[in-house]
UniProtKB/TrEMBL annotation, chain A:
Keyword Cytoplasm: yes
One of the GO BP terms on file: phosphatidylinositol dephosphorylation
Domain annotation Myotubularin phosphatase: ranges: 124-499
Alphabetic keyword roster: Acetylation, Cell membrane, Cell projection, Coiled coil, Cytoplasm, Endoplasmic reticulum, Membrane
Protein name: Myotubularin-related protein 9
Gene3D superfamilies hit by this protein: Pleckstrin-homology domain (PH domain)/Phosphotyrosine-binding domain (PTB)
Taxonomic lineage of the native organism: Eukaryota, Metazoa, Chordata, Craniata, Vertebrata
Locations listed in the record: Cell projection, Ruffle membrane; Cytoplasm, Perinuclear region; Endoplasmic reticulum
Similarity comment text for this entry: Belongs to the protein-tyrosine phosphatase family. Non-receptor class myotubularin subfamily.
SUPFAM superfamilies per record: (Phosphotyrosine protein) phosphatases II, PH domain-like
Domain of life: Eukaryota
UniProtKB/TrEMBL annotation, chain B:
InterPro entries recorded: MTMR6_PH-GRAM, Myotubularin, Myotubularin-like_Pase_dom, PH-GRAM_MTMR6-9, PH-like_dom_sf, Prot-tyrosine_phosphatase-like, Tyr_Pase_AS, Tyr_Pase_cat
Amino-acid positions noted as binding substrate in the UniProt annotation, renumbered to this chain: N266, I267, C329, S330, D331, G332, W333, D334, R335
Active site, UniProt feature: C329 (phosphocysteine intermediate)
Gene: Mtmr6
Coiled-coil spans in chain: 510-537
Protein name: MTMR6 protein
Keyword annotations: Coiled coil, Hydrolase, Lipid metabolism
GO biological process per UniProt: phosphatidylinositol dephosphorylation
GO CC, any one term: cytoplasm
Species the sequence originates in: Hippolais icterina
GO molecular function annotation: phosphatidylinositol-3,5-bisphosphate phosphatase activity; phosphatidylinositol-3-phosphate phosphatase activity
Residue ranges constituting the Myotubularin phosphatase domain according to the UniProt record: 117-493
Amino acid sequence: MEFAELIKTPRADNVVLHRPFHLAVEGTLCLTGHHLIFSSRRQDNAEELWLLHSNIDSIDKRFVGSLGTIVIKCKDLRIIQLDIPGMEECLNIASSIEALSTLDSVTLMYPFFYRPMFEVLEDGWSSFLLEQEFELLSSVTNEWRLSCVNKDFSVCPSYPPVVIVPKSIDDEALRKVALFRHGGRFPVLSYYHKKNGMAMMRSSQPLTGTNGRRCKEDEKLVNATLRSGRRGFVIDTRPLTVAQQARAKGGGFEQEVHYPQWRRIHKYIERFNILQESFIKLVEACNDQSHNMDRWLSKLEASNWLTHIKELLTAACLAAQCIDREGASVLVHGSEGTDSTLQVTSLAQIILDPRCRTIRGFEALIVREWLQAGHPFQQRCAQSAYSNSKQKWEAPVFLLFLECVWQIHRQFPCSFEFNEQFLIMLFEHAYASQFGTFLGNNENERAKLKLPQKTMSLWSWVNRPEELSRFQNPLYEANSLVIWPSVAPQSLQLWEGVFLRWNRPSRFLEEAEEERINIIKYNKELQARVNTLRRRLAELEAEGE
Amino acid sequence: QVEQVKLLDRFSTSNKSLTGTLYLTATHLLFIDSSQRETWILHHHIAAVEKLPLTTSGCPLVIQCKNFRIVHFVVPRERDCHDIYNSLLQLSRTAKYEELYAFSYNPKQNESEQVKGWQLIDLAEEYKRMGVPNDYWQLSDANRDYKICETYPRELYVPRTASKPIIVGSSKFRSKGRFPVLSYYHKNKEAAICRCSQPLSGFSARCLEDEHMLQAISKANPSNRYMYVMDTRPKLNAMANRAAGKGYENEDNYSNIRFQFVGIENIHVMRSSLQKLLEVSGTRGLSVNDFLSGLENSGWLRHIKAVLDAAVFLAKAIAVESASVLVHCSDGWDRTSQVCSLGALLLDSYYRTIKGFMVLIEKDWISFGHKFSDRCCQLDGDPKEISPVFTQFLESVWNLTEQFPQAFEYNEAFLLQIHEHVHSCQFGNFLGNCQKEREELKLKEKTYSLWSFLLAEQKKYQNPLYNPDFSPELTLLEPNTVSFNFKFWRNMYHQFDRSMHPRQSMFNLIMSTSEQNKQLEEDIRELEAKIKQRNGQSDVVLEKEQEQTAYPDPVALKSPPCFQKEQPPMPVNDAVRTIEGSNTADNRYSELVSEFSKAEPAVVSLEYGVARMTC
């Protein structure tokens, strides 16, 4: 298919762009296969706006006489308005945008056409390999092994080709366990707590069904992570009733009889359409400037978004607590083990593991616990809060995770190497990007699409020194502690950087942030200078003697 | 003294507790736990003491403080608990001003310091700063002996054209005699904020003198003959007041006025609103939705928004339309104080400095008779008079500091500290209900002023992000009052609940870094002076290096090379070369030096020129 076929009017003049808190600008609008480009003609204040079609969540058009108006709502939650003279032009442009922003073939997406303008110093596709992770692990323990049982994705289609499992369990047993777990997602290592040797595993629900089927290999596998005589915790992200109902559909949970060394805790985390609706309601509330105080607070409450944040943080703290405080191993799962499970395991690592609070460590965490672990990004992030499509697999699972990281970040502003912008950038790229990183639903699909060969990795770009400097937190000072966030409602806040980003003037806040950075930078320079002078003085004194 | 007392964690669901000893002193309740940490609670801060039903571990005692600290003790023996309970009840209720802490508080200040402390804030000076008296406004001696209005200060500024009979007549037509007077004068716009109480208009009463008074105010503004009259009450309340012979201005009787209601609720609504807010925030195991709906039902943030909206309306009338504004509520000492002071804060950057904020409180709150004693329950009195009006003012200011982090010289700690002392009765400033009462109490002789103590520890209250050039003098601060900008003030209402706050405080870090920067600048000056002493010319090169480093501009300006004043510069000699050629271990350093000295030789002589001139 040629994109040109979809673009009947590639260019329109005298278009007026409206954005909140900006003056309206007149300029020229151009459509290309992947971008909407607006450039103002004014020479004193030339401005260009490049918008990826894939970033467009919904588009509305209306007419007053022959003046057409298009309102574009983006996946990053921004809303812009374009006034286009000429009814035909406007209709053409609107229908082109609609078609180009909803391409159904992945291979037509921009990452397959994007040619980077920068030199690739390090190929992000091979920056974070599980093999490296395992190497680190084997330096502290030899209880685990790397298994290639899934190398052709036949045992579990949503797992990566290599996984880390207890050493005592062979591939044959893994194959059997895979048959006993939903989608073949057998328990694998998610995190090893060096401090006390406890492990966090993740999987999907066991297929016990109504007649209480059991699988000896599965029991053996999970028990292999326990120290003798110690108990472990299964954190089930569904409420007990849902877990029980799941048995009718062939799913289920670990029964005490067969897993006597494990205590099951049900910690409910909301998912799918409920999460999506919550997201939509929150964005609606934030976009309406006319709400009086009561209405705003009741809308904020009705969205339930902060409740989800609190529940998720609580579950993650619980998992972390079991490992660090109780000295117990943990197995986390919900139903499929691709959403709430990953939220919990990855957040628990943020709390427990200082490495995950560095930029590279956090990138590795996302690769390991989200991309390789098979979170279906393409399904979940196809649409954002403005879409009317209401597909049941859309859900802001990843955004919720990022916001929880932000909440912890706010409470421990000196413990993270990255800043808020880094989290916002990841949110943007998960929904629309020139990079192939978040395309596809799992490693299997990514391999089929040949993404590493045909597209650029987000990490190749982010990890260049020029870009990294934008994402560094000047307050960062590494600390090796476990960081326990407060989950009291008074301690949680709306993530203004995402939800109010386009709804309020932010200049003063940005300037203040800059000043904070200046103070820190200036401090470093002064310290360096004092050291230099001290040395100098010492030298002079030595010379004098 | 009672031993083996447990202090329970307010929010912990498990019964986590600290064991220690409780002491009662004349002024404080003191708890020292087993690790020797001390918790001091001033008796005056205690708002309520409650004895809960006996439990197996002892008798629980809950103490609520006016600074929103809530402590939960468990006393092993019921009799002890009962004794403490009774003592606290007595100690926290004071019948006479002379028994308040301020009269016994004895800091290490001698008499002249005490006097100086009270002279620190001079309101006459402040009116002069605003630009009055002038052609239109003058100081009136009408109230010199508190004859016209007991709750106003002695010195009042009124339009020149308002003669004494007009003042007297107008005051008779105003509730409590609080006739319209100047609160703030905007030099550039020649417009004024005036304040008063409600007119005694009933359903139809008129008063020619009062009408003349308002006309005089509007005529005192050459740039706009129209003036606004802002009634800060909800319309319904104002109308209800008419039945009692009070009410609001009839637009038809006054020429050139625009009348406007702004709908801030009364002290009783505010009191119960805060009560509800505290109930919600004090709940254990609170869910997000209960918190948000509780926040909504309390109406607290709605009230804060209403106050700030009114202030924005006032400030815009002055700054945009150059119109004078007369503000009143019922008696003109609660809502009127809030709106006038916040309006002035938005208009004039002076009030965003530490000293200026003290002046603002002294002017619009203390001198104009906000009833601090009644509102903060300094003496055992009518509980219906208690209301968090001043707390709301501080919270509104805090909201502004959140929106404009660089506009204020003071920080959150400053606001919290003022709030603390409004209730502590440790200093004389806030005692009593009006100036007349304060004079009768001889506060200036018998007590100390808070302001000198706050200024002495100014460092703690400075906002490290403050940029004095943020808004040039008299440019309007325009806050965004869309609902989502208003947040729950955790650091106020949970100030003492440590578990709720971020474990790492960005604010403290920036504070201490900024503080350290000043110290480092000092160190550098000292070191450079020493080096210079040792080696005549070396500092020139060093200084150039400093110039070359890419300092962030605003901060770099703070470090002028003034250290050269100490020593006369010596003529250029071989010193520079000596350093270049010396065997310094730090290669990078010497490289830099040589590079810079080659690059821009002109700077050397220029620096010397400057140095010579300053010497």
